[in-house]
Amino acid sequence: MSDVVERTLSVLPGLLGQHDPGTGPGGAGGPGRVSATSRLGSLIRSITALTSKHEEEKLIQQELTSLKTTVSAPTTTLRLMKECMVRLIYCEMLGYESSFGYIHAIKLAQQGNLLEKRVGYLAVSLFLHENHELLLLLVNTVVKDLQSTNLVEVCMALTIVSQIFPREMIPAVLPLIEDKLQHSKEIIRRKAVQALYKFYLIAPNQVQHIHDKFRKALCDRDAGVMAASLHIYLQMIKENPSGYKDLTGSFVTILKQVVGGKLPIDFNYHSVPAPWLQIQLLRILGLLGKDDPRTSELMYDVLDESLRRAEINHNITYAILFECVQTIYTINPKSELLEKAAKCIGKFVLSPKINLKYLGLKALTYVIQQDPNLALQHQMTIIECLDHPDPIIKRETLELLYRITNGQNVIVIVQKMLDYLKESKEEYAIINLVGKIAELAEKYAPDNEWFIQTMNAVFSVGGDVVHPDIPNNFLRLLAEGFDDGKEDVQLQMYAVQSYLALLEEEDALYPQKFLQVMSWVLGEYSSLVTDVDPEVILTKLHSLLKKTFVTSETKVWIMAAVTKIASRTSCSKTVDKLIQEFSNSLDTCMRQYAFELKHLCEDKALMKTLLPFDASCGDMVVDASLSFLDGFVAEGLGRGAAPYKPHHQRQEEKLSQEKALNFEPYGLSFVSSVSSSGVTGRQSPTGLSFGSDTSGNSAETGHKETNTLKLEGVRKLWGKEGYLPKKENKVGKENEPQTLSCGTLLAGQVGESPALQSDQVASLSEEDKEKQQLASTLFIGLGSNAGVSLMGKVDTTIQKFKRKSKINETQSSEEVSDFQISAASDFGPLLDTAPINVEDCEGNTHTRLRKSSLCSSDIVEENLAFETPQSLKKSGLDERLSDSRLSQSSLFADSNMEIFQPSPSARCEGASKTPLVPSLPEELEDLTHSEVLELCQSDALALHLCKILESPTYQFPVIEAQCVEHCQKCVWMDKICTQGILSASVHYQSELETRLQFSITLSLLDFIRPMEMTTEDFGKLWLSLSNDVKQNIKLSSSQDSLSAAMNTLQQKLKLHIVDTIGNEGILACRLLPSVPCLLHCRTHSGMLALWFRSPCAALPDGLLYQCQKVMEES
Amino acid sequence: MINAILVFNNHGKPRLVRFYQHLAEEVQQQIIRETFHLVLKRDDHICNFLECGSLFGGSDYKLIYRHYATLYFVFCVDSSESELGILDLIQGVFICFVATLQVLERGEEVFPYSSRMMFSQVFVETLDKCFENVCELDLIFHMDKVHHILQEVVIGGMVLETNMNEIVAQVEAQSKLEKAEGGLSAAPSRAVSAVKNINLPEIPRNINIGDINIKVPNLSQFM
């Protein structure tokens, strides 16, 4: 400490010597008043006196000009500079740019004394952003201050680092900050942890190696340091919960101590010990305990304790309670705790405090899917909240209702939502709610009429802000329909009729999107309605075209509709008139359409083939690889045309040409090699092809096509699960005895609670009665399962019955289980630069499911027949890729991964207790594969996983295995990260609808394959790649030779050793499917210098991390 | 994560603005304006949470605000923050501000209030009244100090130090340092002790209670 004091003392004379003339002791109100008389003070005062924005602007511009001259004057003292900085901060806050001062802020941070430095750093953190180029100038100052013996300076440096720091300069300060973790002062340690947290956020792979230091920080004797480290852990656990399960015990212990009041008293806030710390810990526990019974077991006690302790009636205890409830409902459930948590939610919901009520609704929304009874308990409160004056409360209530919607209450709930929509003016709320209504309508619509009318309301209220998916989905639904052709036609006819009625009104203004939908439907399906003359429809469309409010985009839609209708009528005056009118329109697009129409009208036969009826959902095969142009390309190349080069390659070549001296002979030969495989160059995005790729090209293209086709087929199922119930409902009518009985049963149950209440309160006002009536309509269908139900088993009976009747009706009997796989989006992207390629997946993900064997299905028939009279004919698998979700998170595509999935019928066998041991199908046995692991198991179904590391080259025949279903998924990594989790769930239905969830952790290494190539190829490829990463790592004594190191890399990372020359070696690998990564390594004096190159920017970073890891391990 | 902390007065004039994600100057001003309009529409008796839609690009953002005297304190947060936690944090930040400004304006040497008192509801109500006297402009007069306090509570959008007592203690120590720098017959020894205090935030954890002239009734009555 003494040295610090001495040092500071030596600075002091400087501090004391500077007197700012502007802030002399003249201020009357003591030292504090000084500022009010300063320049800043006068500036602020004059601005407050102004009345118009314009005057303010003028004044600030003046101020900025004077500041500009002051800061750039060489005579300006640092003290004055500090004053100027504060004024600049003020101007920036008002929204005026003052970029001329940025550099001076950096200078001030560099040169000033303590206080000036502080203002300098503050200004920097306010002015600059992470990628600002000037920020690099600050790095040196930070490094200097980090090494300072003055703790205040160190603190300031750590603070600025944890706010804003250039990513690429992290290595410069990392060791210094790591040292600070051992500092004797806790404030320094705490700030160091904060800085590391920042680094973790912006460049997680750079701090990978200090994870054990985070652990030390977690065990720090000072609670502040520990609390800071929790931020890092929360983040890391969010990304990869399975990696930190071992810490559960520590977190539980910490929370126990905090709750038990073991922290120093000044961590108390309103006599609650460290509330924010508690919240943080509860969150972490929730993440750790999710879907993990064993880990959850550890935390039941402490959660119970937290609930019990949080009794004081204060806001902050409610914050803790809320977090507790959320955690309890997130982790593996325990009925005792759930009961207590439910009581807590009651406290929130019933609280007169509006904030708590809001959170209560939020909590209800969160837990409602697991425990619908809770909604029943609070139904009257929910009804009250529906009429609450605060729109936020209302919206939250609607969100809650949205979660409990089912086939029976959908009409009431959607009506409530529409009512809210009509009042609301906030665009955001409208978009959000409109989406929900559309979803509910699609899922639960009781009949065609209601569905069309609701969608009409959605389009007219939602206007043009509705998400484009809504009209698209709606149209697709109309076009693709469902299994029953008759139903489809009815729906389409109803839509046409309702739109004709809407267009009947002369002056109605409809949103553009609605008009587009109308015109599309009229164009496609108006011919279904036989009692309306097409001429009438054409006239209507024609008159729309003339309206001024119709945008040109909508006009194109209308024109397309006209064309379609015209193809089905022999000749029409309106069409002729229209052609005439628009043939000389100023709008070129319209003119083109008019001409097209004219030519088509002249050739009716062509028109009919071009515009067939109801073919909108027919599959169109698109040859994305443009293989039909191969001949053309070959011809062009034959005539000596230059082969196509991808963009980056062209740039690379340009760069290499620009080099003053190019001694590398590879450039030329590379070009020639490209021309030899010119056709393939276009296919692989990297512009590289290897081995026999050329010949395999056409085969691969064909392969891809089949995939697309398959996906189309899947999409036809109409991803929204919900559409099925709608139909089922109707089917239910045919199945009267069954559905009726269940319906009455439910009505009886739901009816009970209001009845009870009315007994208690004899004299109910009319209003209350109304509310109760509303309640009984809203909450119908929720009370089917009494008592606390555990997670995942809450699907109501209605749904179940419906499903069965549906299977019965459609006779397809294939619908037994849905296999739904969705790549979870919680990947920890290791590298910021990872390309986000969303659309890629559709073409690449291919999925094969094999039907279960016949012998097993026979057994199923018997068993199920015994249970339900309407037996299932066959068991099969219906595989559904929820493509929307998958496409969002298609980080993986195509590493050959096998999921064994015994068919659901295994349950029948379960009675005889013969566990099925999964084995690989014969054709895969010979390939390199990992061990077969069990993923999860229920009484009916066990899932096993095996990763196949080689890609087989032949198609798989259907294998007859006893009750074992194989499902083969190919997964590719699209966005590079060290580890990813593939979460998926299997839905199947035997007696109850059951859902099995599992997740598979995949690491980058699973996607890395050796790449065989010659040294020459390596050289060519090396030059063509642009992203490189270099790093030196220390060799341990056991593997000090190059060959040992390379062998380690070969074995552990599956790199292919291309060549070794002296102390240099080259290795190659590829990321599936074909992203190459090359490694050049060299040993010198115990160090291994690694140099990676790859076309993908993130891949070298990821591989480097893996290399470091294996080298450390060995 | 906290995306922004905005403090503006009843007329929408910004008094303290801090963004934790990089946004263009115009976007920032736009956000301030829209936030002001959203908050202004709400009266004081409805809840303190507000969905702000696509203001920040995403859909998950919320505004959590409090209205003190003439000032609105608005925190824009994403869904990962605890609403009630932030609501209390705003109060904590507010108390720290007011306490600091009082120290700065009145030049009080030692904090006159005990740490436990500082964070009681009653005290906030009292402060609410004092704040009108302190004048909202002081917030900009001492902009740099106010920012420094904020830096101790929230860094890079993360709630960090919630041990408010420590923060206030630091402020006090810093104001001492400032005075020492002011040089009004400041003995070097005082400056040294000030520097010491800055370095050792653990020392003044239990601040001298001093003379309390505000009656503190039982807490529970006020909840």
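qc> Residues 736-760 of chain A form the longest helix (25 residues).
qc> done
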